[in-house]
């Protein structure tokens, strides 16, 4: 069994919104945190100004968070390695980081996407690249908008690992006065819940951008949950995971919040901007804009109906407008709610 102590050094890759906010959680829980930044100037700013001016301006970082651009330095002595890059770049990045990871270290994925092409979940990518077994791979997922977590607003989340003892140890490593983690052994359910809610949030954003109200958004959220559960359960997830924090909880937070990058991306599509125009206007990742395609392919491969992923993918790819998407949803063949 993998054993990790209750406190220690954690390496976090990388210093975007969620990597930085989760570093604060880890530091508040008593860990020494080293945050790896892709750009040396971001590491320097964090160490000198005690804040991440690019991603979380105005938020003071705890003294036990330091930053570096040096991979070896970040990983030296770390028994937990937290991964928070955009999903589509994880494989390439981790391939260069893996040789420097301490033997036996546990990986924690904070990412909410599915790899294009392979259709692999992030835990699967981590296992393939590092050779770590399921007892060394965990995910943290829940209604955790980075800015609110960084402001230490109360929130709950799920720490999932197939080895429940490891999930419990990680739970202790990130439990603070404001952040309450629950354990789970359903890694697949948590990951699919996290990735799918981004696609649903894109559709909700489109509805908002088109000027529609709460009936439309509630309908999309509810049918989005049904679609997520249909795929996740067919692949072996526990249905209760989808009703929990990493499913319904995250779906509600992301679809309701103007802080969500995915909802905002959808809103802009609904207002008539093209995907290219939106990409040009922001540096922050909206995972659903890529994962709509991989989740649709996963649903097709699994033989599951996925109309929201299918329509969102069509709008993101420019094959359909947001207005046409809404009309098409309503015009689809009618059926029983539970089918
Ligand atoms: N922001 C949030 O509230 C939450 C985000 N997440 C998930 O966490 C993951 C990371 O998201 P954020 O930190 O929000 O994104 P972000 O856009 O704020 O930051 C992304 C980070 O990755 C780095 N990066 C970008 N492209 C890269 C590349 N090609 N190679 C290596 N590093 C690269 C950036 O420099 C930046 O440090 C995503 O999967 C997201 O869905 C999960 C929960 C909450
Ligand atoms: O995953 C999130 C909240 O749990 C953040 O959502 P966005 O990536 O859409 O901002």
TrEMBL record:
Pathway it works in: Membrane lipid metabolism; glycerophospholipid metabolism
Keyword annotations of the record: Cytoplasm, Lipid biosynthesis, Lipid metabolism, NAD, NADP, Nucleotide-binding, Oxidoreductase, Phospholipid biosynthesis, Phospholipid metabolism
SUPFAM superfamilies registered for this protein in UniProt: 6-phosphogluconate dehydrogenase C-terminal domain-like (SSF48179), NAD(P)-binding Rossmann-fold domains (SSF51735)
Gene3D superfamilies assigned to the protein according to its UniProt record, in alphabetical order: N-(1-d-carboxylethyl)-l-norvaline Dehydrogenase, domain 2 (1.10.1040.10), NAD(P)-binding Rossmann-like Domain (3.40.50.720)
Binding residues for NADPH: 17-18, 38-39, 55, 112, 146, 261, 285, 287
Record flagged with keyword Cytoplasm: yes
Nucleotide-binding as UniProt keyword: yes
GO BP, sorted A to Z: carbohydrate metabolic process; glycerol-3-phosphate biosynthetic process; glycerol-3-phosphate catabolic process; glycerophospholipid metabolic process; phospholipid biosynthetic process
Residue numbers annotated as active site: 197
Domain of life: Bacteria
Residues binding NAD(+): 146, 261
Gene Ontology CC: cytosol
Compartments (UniProt record): Cytoplasm
Residue stretches making up the Glycerol-3-phosphate dehydrogenase NAD-dependent N-terminal domain: 9-166
Binding site for substrate: 112, 261-262
Record domain Glycerol-3-phosphate dehydrogenase NAD-dependent C-terminal: where: 186-327
EC number(s) recorded for this UniProt protein: 1.1.1.94
Cited function: Catalyzes the reduction of the glycolytic intermediate dihydroxyacetone phosphate (DHAP) to sn-glycerol 3-phosphate (G3P), the key precursor for phospholipid synthesis.
Protein name, UniProt field: Glycerol-3-phosphate dehydrogenase [NAD(P)+]
Protein source organism: Nocardioides marmotae
Encoding gene per record: gpsA
């Amino acid at each position: 069994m993998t054993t990790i102590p209750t406190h220690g050094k954690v390496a976090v890759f990388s210093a975007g919104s969620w990597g930085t906010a989760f570093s604060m959680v880890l530091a508040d829980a008593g860990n020494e945190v080293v945050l790896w930044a892709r750009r040396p100037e971001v590491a320097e700013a964090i160490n000198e100004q005690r804040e991440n001016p690019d991603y979380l301006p105005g938020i003071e970082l705890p003294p036990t968070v330091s930053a570096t651009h040096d991979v070896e330095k970040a990983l030296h002595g770390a028994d937990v390695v937290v991964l928070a890059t955009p999903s589509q770049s994880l494989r390439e990045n981790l391939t260069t980081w893996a040789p420097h990871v301490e033997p036996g270290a546990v990986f924690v994925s904070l990412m909410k996407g599915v790899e294009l092409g392979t259709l692999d979940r992030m835990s699967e990518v981590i296992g393939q690249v590092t050779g770590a077994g399921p007892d060394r791979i965990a995910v943290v997922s829940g209604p955790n908008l980075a800015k609110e977590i960084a402001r230490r607003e109360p929130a709950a989340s799920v720490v999932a690992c197939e080895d429940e003892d490891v999930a419990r140890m990680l739970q202790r490593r990130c439990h603070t006065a404001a952040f309450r983690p629950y354990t789970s052994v359903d890694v697949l359910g948590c990951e699919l819940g996290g990735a799918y809610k981004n696609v649903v949030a894109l559709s909700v954003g489109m509805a908002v951008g088109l000027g529609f109200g709460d009936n439309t958004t509630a309908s999309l959220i509810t049918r989005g949950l049904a679609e997520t559960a249909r795929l996740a359960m067919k692949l072996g997830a526990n249905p209760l995971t989808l009703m929990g924090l990493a499913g319904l909880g995250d779906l509600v937070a992301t679809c309701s919040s103007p802080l969500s990058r995915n909802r905002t991306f959808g809103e802009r599509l609904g207002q008539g901007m093209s995907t290219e125009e939106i990409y040009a206007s922001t540096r922050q990742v909206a995972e659903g804009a890529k994962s709509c395609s991989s989740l649709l392919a996963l649903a097709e491969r699994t033989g599951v109906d996925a109309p929201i992923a299918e329509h969102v993918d069509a709008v993101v790819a420019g094959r359909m407008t947001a207005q046409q998407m809404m009309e098409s949803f309503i015009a689809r063949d009618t059926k029983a709610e539970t089918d």
